[in-house]
Task: structure prediction
Amino acid sequence: MRRGLVLVALLVCGLAAFLALGLGFGDLVPRPGGLKLAGEFLGAAWRPALDYQADFVPQNAPAFLSVALAALRKTLLFAAAAMSLSLLIGTPLGLLGSALVPARVRLPVRVLIALMRSVHELLWAVVLLAALGMSSLTAVIAIAIPFSGTLAKVFSELLDEAPTTAYRALRGTGATPLQAFLGGLLPVAAPDMGAYAFYRFECAVRSSAVLGFFGFPTIGYYLKRSFENLHYREVWTWLYMIVLLVLVLEWWSAHLRRRFVA
Amino acid sequence: MSVAQRVHELRRQRPRDRFLRGSLVLLAAVVIYAWFGGDVRVTELFSERRAANLARFFGHDAMPRPLRDAEGGGGFGALLQWVGQVWREKGATGVGATFAIAALSIVLAGAYGLLTAPLASRTLMRCDPYLSSEDCAWWRSVSISFRLIAVALRAVPEYMWAFLLLAVLGPTAWPAVLALAVHNAGILSRLGAETVENLPRRPLAGLRRLGASRSQIAVSALYPLGLGRYLLYFFYRFETCVREATVLGMLGVVSLGYFVVEARARDRYDELLLLILFGAILVLAADFISWLARRWLRQAK
Result:
């Protein structure tokens, strides 16, 4: 009954949003130029570029594929740096935000977590670019702030939901709260926490790729440039690279998950 | 056997896994290389130029206009008036559009996920679902293709989808809506398929034994049984949609991001930060709505 109500309410919301945005189905038909562009773009899907598509390439320009590999490398490394920083900040915040900690500590920490999370990494990037200027570290920090918040939130929830049997047994035999936590609660929650952190790594890779739109040397930078130069085959190379990267990460995380998360 | 020996024994017998160990070593190596391989330079942050930049940003650029001494130095009242003005002129439009984009796109994505979840599930797409584990090529290829579509939709980030769609469709809200819808359709399709696969098998096998077809099983059992779980995922994705929708405006669609970029172009960083704050409040509100909805749904059981 409730579910049915929710479904109807959602449809009404969608319709209201449609009207509020002033959308018409007419706008869904591409403009004449757009249609041609879409045709050319989709036509290029079968032939991703393995070399520069431009007619003129400076003599000393590095090979296209080596540029591609460099972009892939930067994308991965920015994501890895950001994710390690997020784990470093997010894990203690997650512990402090869990129900194990007295409310006068927990509540302010939760507010901090919510604030970090509620601003998108691209907006953090805009602010940090203004405050710090362009630097690889700007990109890493921009990703790390909201990702730390998200990790902290999920970690604290996982700790709160983990079965406390082992924890209480250890407390009963005289272990200090810290000992009981390290021996009885953390090991119970760790596989889920690890699996979630790995999933967030996949998200960090996507965010790192998109940050290229703001001038960082990741995949997004080259994708934008290729598209603006109408080099659609190159665009497809970039798209396929992202999809491949995500597929590999997903295969990897699925294998880890199958072994360690019941 | 002493306690110490026993502990030692237990420690030696602990489960060890090569794949996990290898993965952890590899990940650690990548992280170390990222920080120390010269790609991310920590020292860059501490240059004098950057310190000056930072001081200027917080001392002047980020300071709300009415509080800056040079321009008259109004008090709290002036500050409130400025906040109100930015809200009326930009914030309200941006927040409204952002929320509407997120709402419409998540409904579209949810519908796609709902329709394709049974088709992408490995349990229903068999020769004789729930009764024998035998695979057959045709049904298997159906589930595999729907899964592949889901991965492809999801792997490309929203921002890139929006960028590409904007060139084709022109500057309406559609590119943002469709970009969010497409990416989340991929996610919800997969989560929906997992939900279907995790349903208890016995009642479904019973239905099949009574001669129910795949679509009959889907309508009479899969949807009613799985809907609750699916809606939990749906509301969880709604939160992230609102977050993403704030940003897509940066490409030129009227959501908060549009006004953020515009403020940056005019070097109005105080206004930019205020708009980001409006966005943060919207995201927190969406989190709260989603939390309320999920709680309400859980209690229904």
Chain A is about 75% helix and 0% strand. Chain A touches chain B through 72 residues (CB under 8 Å). The two ends of chain A are 32 Å apart (CA to CA). Chain A has one domain: 64-260.
